Protein backbone atom coordinates (compact mmCIF):
# COMPACT_ATOMS: atom_id res chain seq x y z
CA UNK A 1 0.00 0.00 0.00
CA UNK A 2 1.03 3.59 -0.51
CA UNK A 3 2.25 5.84 2.24
CA UNK A 4 -0.53 7.39 4.31
CA UNK A 5 -3.19 4.88 3.26
CA UNK A 6 -4.84 2.23 5.32
CA UNK A 7 -6.87 2.00 8.50
CA UNK A 8 -5.01 4.85 10.18
CA UNK A 9 -5.36 7.32 7.29
CA UNK A 10 -6.96 10.63 8.20
CA UNK A 11 -8.55 13.36 6.14
CA UNK A 12 -7.32 16.93 6.32
CA UNK A 13 -9.71 19.62 7.46
CA UNK A 14 -10.76 22.07 4.79
CA UNK A 15 -9.82 25.71 5.03
CA UNK A 16 -13.26 27.25 4.75
CA UNK A 17 -14.98 29.78 6.90
CA UNK A 18 -18.09 28.59 8.74
CA UNK A 19 -20.45 30.52 6.44
CA UNK A 20 -18.83 29.39 3.19
CA UNK A 21 -20.08 25.81 3.22
CA UNK A 22 -22.84 26.44 0.63
CA UNK A 23 -20.82 26.30 -2.55
CA UNK A 24 -22.06 26.40 -6.14
CA UNK A 25 -22.88 22.68 -6.27
CA UNK A 26 -25.13 22.92 -3.23
CA UNK A 27 -26.87 26.03 -4.57
CA UNK A 28 -27.50 24.35 -7.92
CA UNK A 29 -28.79 21.21 -6.21
CA UNK A 30 -31.12 23.33 -4.06
CA UNK A 31 -32.41 25.16 -7.14
CA UNK A 32 -32.98 21.87 -8.95
CA UNK A 33 -34.85 20.41 -5.96
CA UNK A 34 -37.01 23.53 -5.67
CA UNK A 35 -37.83 23.43 -9.37
CA UNK A 36 -38.74 19.77 -9.17
CA UNK A 37 -40.97 20.45 -6.17
CA UNK A 38 -42.80 23.20 -8.06
CA UNK A 39 -43.24 20.91 -11.07
CA UNK A 40 -44.59 18.04 -8.98
CA UNK A 41 -47.02 20.25 -7.07
CA UNK A 42 -48.27 21.73 -10.36
CA UNK A 43 -48.69 18.22 -11.79
CA UNK A 44 -50.68 17.19 -8.73
CA UNK A 45 -52.95 20.24 -8.87
CA UNK A 46 -53.57 20.15 -12.65
CA UNK A 47 -52.84 16.65 -13.97
CA UNK A 48 -54.72 17.30 -17.23
CA UNK A 49 -52.03 19.80 -18.28
CA UNK A 50 -49.30 17.16 -17.92
CA UNK A 51 -50.92 14.21 -19.68
Automatic annotation (TrEMBL):
Keywords: Membrane, Transmembrane, Transmembrane helix. Pfam families: Potass_KdpF. The keyword ATP-binding does not apply. One of its GO terms (molecular function) is P-type potassium transmembrane transporter activity. GO terms for cellular component: plasma membrane. The chain crosses the membrane at residues 24-45. It comes from the Bacteria. This is K+-transporting ATPase, F subunit family protein. The lineage of its organism: Bacteria, Pseudomonadati, Pseudomonadota, Betaproteobacteria, Burkholderiales.
Amino acid sequence: MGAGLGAGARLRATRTTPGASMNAWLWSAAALAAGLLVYLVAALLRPEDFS
